[in-house]
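Backbone-to-sequence.
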């Protein structure tokens, strides 16, 4: 990401605790009250799987093809009744998902910004940002479990980024890994929908995920003077 491309968000100083889950407002946990629209032949997704054992979500949301890597192939069309099809979602459900992802973004940006202070207090940069990525993935997992196609597509990308950051031999290489992850999120093709409002909401959701990961990249580079 070009430097300075950080979305506006509150920069809290909260240290990432050992709490296993992000706590989001109750209103954002609830699924849409409206009944789902009848399944459209152009509103389908096919979920890809990724391997690994770090809280891996592979297979959690359905079967798919992993040949193109994390995040790839999620929004390819599939025939009715085949594995990995998600029920059609309402505009209200997609709006709730967008609100949920924006709330997640705010929390993640606060935690990412706090890494600068934690590093000065003796924590390694990779350890701090691994925690940030862990919370980011868990938040996306929650939205994915609620049926969000964008979250289903992007959660495995964040999981893959976290594994590679953990394995990186230097912070510079870790920053490169996060930058690569931003490109992967940006390249995910959005699921087709007959509803232009839903299509726009999903585009906004993907942008929120991309901007959040890009901000983590900026904070990681800044924290170690890159």
């Amino acid at each position: 990401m070009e430097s300075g491309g950080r979305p506006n968000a509150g920069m809290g100083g909260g240290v990432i605790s050992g709490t296993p889950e992000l706590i989001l407002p109750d209103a954002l946990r609830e699924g849409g009250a409206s009944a789902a629209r009848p399944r459209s032949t152009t509103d389908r997704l096919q979920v890809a799987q990724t391997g690994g054992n770090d809280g891996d979500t592979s297979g959690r949301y359905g079967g798919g093809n992993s040949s193109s890597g994390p995040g790839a192939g999620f929004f390819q069309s599939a025939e009715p009744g085949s594995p990995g099809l998600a029920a059609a979602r309402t505009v209200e459900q997609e709006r709730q998902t967008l609100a949920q992802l924006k709330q997640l973004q705010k929390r993640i940006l606060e935690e990412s910004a706090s890494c600068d202070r934690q590093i000065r207090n003796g924590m390694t940069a990779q350890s701090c940002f691994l925690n940030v990525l862990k919370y980011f993935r868990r938040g996306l997992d929650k939205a994915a479990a609620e049926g969000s196609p964008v979250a289903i597509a992007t959660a495995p990308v964040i999981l893959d980024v976290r594994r590679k950051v953990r394995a990186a031999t230097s912070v510079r290489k870790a920053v490169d890994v996060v930058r690569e992850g931003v490109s992967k999120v940006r390249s995910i093709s959005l699921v087709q929908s007959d509803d232009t409002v839903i299509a726009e909401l999903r585009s906004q959701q993907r942008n929120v995920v991309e901007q959040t990961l890009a901000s983590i990249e900026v904070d990681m580079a800044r924290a170690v003077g890159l």
